[in-house]
From TrEMBL:
Name of protein: PilZ domain-containing protein
Alphabetized InterPro entries for the sequence: PilZ_domain
Lineage of the organism: Bacteria, Pseudomonadati, Pseudomonadota, Alphaproteobacteria, Sphingomonadales
GO molecular function, one term: cyclic-di-GMP binding
Tree of life domain: Bacteria
Pfam families recorded: PilZ
Ranges where the PilZ domain occurs: 16-102
Length: 107
């Protein structure tokens, strides 16, 4: 498990969070757009990183369906050419975070 600084939109580091590399295929959507398959690559109790989510809009909430879990709501915090970083609307309980990490394949 890694501990990594998370940078906000203004570039300032806002927190330190335990992060785990994961390899999960999930569904994501914004607004009323169709659900799209995404690859969850990085997870913490406070947020996550997904690979390539086309036409992502930071001004709209993102919904994430992890297999076997309820739909989670998040906000896009940063975007790069091929990744999107998000912050959960409500942090995951540590037991939920650990369950997802154990359930995922090797990153």
């Amino acid at each position: 498990m890694l501990y990594e600084r998370i940078a906000g939109r203004d570039g300032r580091h806002v927190s330190r969070s335990a992060r785990a590399g994961v390899a999960l295929v999930c569904d994501a959507r914004q607004g009323t757009r169709p659900w799209k398959k995404v690859r969850l690559e990085d997870l913490s109790a406070c947020g996550f990183r997904i690979a390539w989510f086309p036409a992502a809009r930071p001004d709209m909430p993102l919904r994430l369906k992890i297999p076997g879990m309820q739909i989670l709501s998040a906000q896009i915090v940063w975007q790069s050419e091929n990744s999107v970083g998000c912050k959960f609307s409500a942090p995951l309980h540590i037991a939920v975070f650990e369950h997802i990490v154990r359930s995922s394949g090797p990153a």
